[in-house]
């Protein structure tokens, strides 16, 4: 039996961030050394700015976002599409590592094309409550507040099976001061 990605990531985060954010979830810590460089969960009250992100079928708007090292951004993420979508800050390797969990969620009915069954997810111990990610049904809105680390490879993607592969990926670029 494979260990839960949530547990592995929690351990990785505990090693790279303070105890206050150690339980941030599977994606924030997945991917080896990228976690510390990527940044840490931020506090809404400390946000330097707010960026609204709309998710529709296989695209994000905006699809390119510029940030600065150390900047705290609150992303207000809206699912304006007809299907479940995810906003997940991370790297290609992190998203690859998350693929099995998302596929399992789909195959076991924890998630369908347009709904998320939180009760089934909770019973299976697979809550999608990561600090760097939100999974939204059509019409839902949520916030992700993140403090960016040093300039590194980072972006955002929808990891619902087939969505990232269809091009539902956004880029994050780093601005100089």
UniProtKB/TrEMBL annotation:
The keyword Zinc does not apply. Residues 51-172 form the Blue (type 1) copper domain. One of its GO terms (molecular function) is copper ion binding. Keywords: Copper, Metal-binding, Signal. It comes from the Bacteria. Pfam families: Copper-bind. Residues 1-22 form the signal peptide. This is Uncharacterized copper-binding protein, cupredoxin-like subfamily. It comes from Roseovarius lutimaris.
């Amino acid at each position: 039996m494979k260990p839960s990605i949530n547990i592995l990531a929690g351990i990785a985060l505990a090693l790279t961030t303070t105890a206050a954010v150690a339980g941030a979830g599977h994606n924030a810590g997945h991917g080896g050394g990228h976690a510390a460089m990527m940044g840490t969960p931020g506090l809404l009250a400390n946000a330097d700015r707010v960026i609204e992100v709309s998710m529709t079928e296989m695209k994000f708007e905006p699809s390119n976002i510029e940030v600065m090292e150390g900047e705290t951004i609150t992303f207000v993420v809206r699912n304006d599409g007809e299907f479940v979508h995810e906003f997940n800050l991370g790297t290609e390797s992190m998203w690859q590592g998350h693929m099995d969990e998302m596929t399992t969620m789909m195959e076991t009915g924890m998630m369908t094309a347009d709904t998320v069954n939180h009760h089934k997810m909770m019973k299976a111990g697979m809550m999608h409550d990561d600090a760097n990610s939100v999974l939204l049904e059509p019409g839902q809105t949520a916030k992700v507040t993140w403090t960016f680390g040093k300039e590194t490879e980072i972006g955002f993607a929808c990891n619902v099976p087939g969505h990232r592969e269809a091009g539902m990926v956004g880029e994050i670029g780093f601005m100089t001061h």
